[in-house]
Design goal:
The chain is α/β, with parallel strands linked by helices. About 35% of the residues lie in helices and about 20% in strands. The protein has 15 helices and 16 strands. The chain has helices at about 50-55, 95-110, 115-130, 145-155, 180-195, 215-225, 240-250, 255-260, 280-290, 295-300, 310-315, 335-345, 355-365, 395-400, 405-415, and strands at about 5-15, 30-40, 45-50, 60-75, 75-80, 130-140, 160-165, 165, 200-205, 230-235, 270-275, 290-295, 320, 385-390, 420-425, 430. The strands form two sheets. Strands 5, 6, 7, 8, 9, 10, 11, 12 and 13 form a nine-stranded parallel sheet that branches. It has a seven-stranded mixed sheet with strand order 3-2-1-4-14-15-16. Helix 5 packs parallel to helix 6. The protein starts with 6 loop residues before the first strand and ends in a 5-residue tail after the last strand. Bound molecules: guanine (GUN) and zinc ion.
Length: about 425
């Protein structure tokens, strides 16, 4: 069919309006048993009951019948590392050894653009297979890795965020830039990519350990000049990381105080991990409207600690949930929700499946300040959609026989689901998973 032909998806529609308060808060979402979604020119132009919309469709509309599956907003992954596709499943001690032994060597390969292009192809296939339509990635410190990353996203029409990792110390020489070159290269990449099609640039100082004060100052200057860009970094992930950081920045009030001193905080700032936070740091995050990103599979795999969602959200801090590939162990947001649920269970913070599903979609869109564009299926939003099948495997089909409510179905998807549960992934209205 012609690429600009209107397309109607028929099936069960689930779209969040806001964060659900509890298990009975059905006002927080739209749910239509026989619903449909009209997609034209990459955006959603109608959403409602099939019986109501069917009679007034544009004449050349293609109708795709996804019944009995669940049509939802595409998943959003607000923290992962594009050059770590070949780092996943590396047997290491904890964070710093894992970085030195596996991650830095793997990232060095991205000096060669053709390596980045090959990895980008597999990386985006993995996202699409898992129903993820938007992600925020760290590229390597090589500008060409950023070009490979955004070029592939552009080919696929995806809304992606990312940036060149800035790092000028405590890493192999081959990966190190300088404060000045990291500023110049990031600025050139930002000017090339930010706002081009669906691409958005994220200024990316890796973390305080791998940046000199001069480099953090450069990152702060860049953010000040381009406040509509995102900024991403890591914080308070691991005890050894925190001690080393405090040695490197002895005058800072605490870890967050370093980023605060260099002007890196704000409503577009994404702080990966935020596990070992003190009260002052929580207060500053709230004041600056900075975002905490939970990476459960990574936190468990690297033995980093337990993210305290209730404490962060109780302070009024926005949170996201992410895979953190390749410290994280799975591309699937369903697998990630499952592990996140267990991390919170250990702390007696039991999440309802409405809330977990909200988190991976509209919650993450709000964490990125991109609600209104992505994260739900409202008219006028971008047509990034995933179609979920809770009975995709023999074992889940058997379990599905006993499911009687939407909440139970979502919980089954989260607990046993993975890429096999994703029947289709639409990017800007185009089917991408089954395109071949
Ligand atoms: N801290 C600094 N770099 C990294 C990284 O690549 N992964 C994780 N999990 N933490 C980091
Ligand atoms: Zn990370």
């Amino acid at each position: 069919m012609a690429e600009n032909q209107p397309r109607l998806l028929r099936g069960r529609i689930l779209s969040f309006k806001r964060q659900p308060m509890n298990a009975t808060d059905t006002e927080a979402f739209h749910y239509l048993e026989d619903g449909c979604l009209l997609m034209e020119g990459g955006v959603i132009t109608a959403m409602g009951e099939f019986a109501n919309l069917n009679s007034s469709l544009p004449p050349d509309t293609e109708i795709v019948d996804h019944r009995p599956h669940l049509i939802c907003a595409g998943f959003i992954d607000p923290h992962l590392h594009f050059p770590q596709v070949q780092v996943i499943a590396s047997w290491a001690e904890q964070l710093l050894d894992w970085l030195n032994d596996y991650t830095f060597p793997a990232e060095q390969k991205f000096a060669d653009k053709s390596h980045g292009q090959r990895i980008a192809s597999g990386f985006y296939d993995a996202l699409i297979d898992n129903g993820t339509t938007t992600a925020v990635a760290y590229c390597s410190s090589h500008p060409n890795s950023v070009n490979a990353y955004f070029e592939e996203a552009e080919t696929r029409g995806m809304r992606m965020l990312g940036g060149k990792t800035m790092m000028d110390r405590n890493a192999p020489e081959e990966l190190c830039d300088t404060a000045q070159t990291s500023y110049d290269d990031s600025k050139a990449l930002l000017e090339k990519w930010h706002g081009r099609g669906r691409a958005l640039y994220a200024i990316t100082p890796r973390f305080a350990i791998t940046s000199t004060p001069e480099q953090l100052e450069a990152a702060g200057a860049l953010l000040k000049e381009h406040p509509d860009c995102h900024l991403q970094t890591h914080i308070n992930e691991n005890h050894n990381e925190i001690s080393f950081t405090r040695e490197l920045y002895p005058d800072a009030k605490d870890y967050l105080g370093i980023y605060e001193d260099y002007g890196l905080l704000g409503s577009n700032t994404l702080l990966g991990h935020c596990i070992h936070m003190n009260d002052r740091e929580l207060g500053v995050m709230k004041e600056t409207d900075s975002v905490a990103v939970f990476c459960p599979t990574s936190n468990l795999f690297l033995g980093s600690g337990l993210f305290n969602k209730a404490q962060l959200e109780g302070t009024g801090i926005r949170t996201g949930i992410a895979t953190d590939i390749g410290g994280g162990t799975n591309y699937s947001l369903l697998r990630t929700l499952d592990e996140g649920y267990k991390v919170l269970q250990l702390q007696r913070q039991r999440l309802h499946p409405f809330e977990t599903h909200y988190w991976a979609t509209l919650g993450n869109a709000k964490a990125l300040s991109l609600s209104g564009k992505i994260g739900n299926l409202e008219v006028g939003t971008e047509a990034d959609v995933t179609v979920l099948d809770a009975a995709a495997t023999p074992a889940t089909a058997l379990r599905m026989e006993t499911v009687t409510t939407l909440a139970e179905e979502l919980f089954l998807l989260q607990t046993l689901g993975d890429d096999r549960s994703i029947r289709e992934t639409y990017v800007a209205g185009r089917p991408m998973k089954t395109r071949n």
